[in-house]
Amino acid sequence: MIKLPSTKFLTVISKLERRTVAYHESGHAVTGWFLEHAEPLLKVTIVPRGTAALGFAQYVPNENLLMTKEQLFDMTCMTLGGRAAEQVLIGRISTGAQNDLEKVTKMTYAQVAVYGFSDKVGLLSFPQREDSFEMSKPYSSKTAAIIDNEVREWVGKAYERTIQLMEEHKEQVATIAELLLEKEVLHQEDLVRVLGERPFKSAEPTNYDRFIQGFQEDEEKIIEKPVNEPEESGGSSSLDPLVVPT
């Protein structure tokens, strides 16, 4: 989830900017929906908050303790989905993807230079030490060039895959974007109506499956509970659904 500033000051944006934000956020949503290892969308809005966030997307929390190269590739593609949607459906690219590109750069450098995923760099790890005052890197300029080239190549491949997804699902991206322009806020069930259920089934339930199952069970409990049934003692959790009596 993108951390947002206070909603006290709302930013007024033009119709063109609003449309760009809608297609950008739709690109993220659709890309994540059709990539197996990406975390699918729960909520997206194009209501601007301050000057730091013109759109906001919330995804299923990633609770995996370990990540594979394939998972990180899909996450990279999803992060690039906004920029790809602008390129394919609007025909021009805005500065809105700056934060996305920063995330992708850090993620890919970590894969190449820290996690040992690159055959060209080898089984080496050069984690960046934030508390270090060293003026030089712990590897040669030749290794630095290899790392830089690998990062550019990997990000390029991820972007090509994302552009391909945008082309394949162009109509659905446009539909989601237009719904955003109309409603300003969309939830997971809105995406299911447009995109259908996610086309991935695994032997073990994913974070998304567990979230949806828990959400449905909570709704069933609310429906089944008699109106005048007294509450059980033992306190409540901040995660419990709020039931307002009528």
From TrEMBL:
Coiled coil, from the record: none
Keyword ATP-binding set for record: yes
Gene Ontology annotations of biological process type: mitochondrial protein processing
Cofactor entry: Zn(2+)
Domain annotation Peptidase M41: ranges: 12-193
Transmembrane segments: none
SUPFAM superfamilies the record matches: FtsH protease domain-like (SSF140990)
Pfam families: Peptidase_M41
Organism: Lupinus albus
InterPro entries, sorted: ATP-dep_Zn_Metalloprotease, Peptidase_M41, Peptidase_M41-like
Keywords of the record: ATP-binding, Hydrolase, Metal-binding, Metalloprotease, Nucleotide-binding, Protease, Zinc
GO cellular component, one term: chloroplast thylakoid membrane
Annotated stretches, region: Disordered: 224-246
A Gene Ontology molecular function term of the record: metal ion binding
Protein name as it appears in the record: Putative peptidase M41
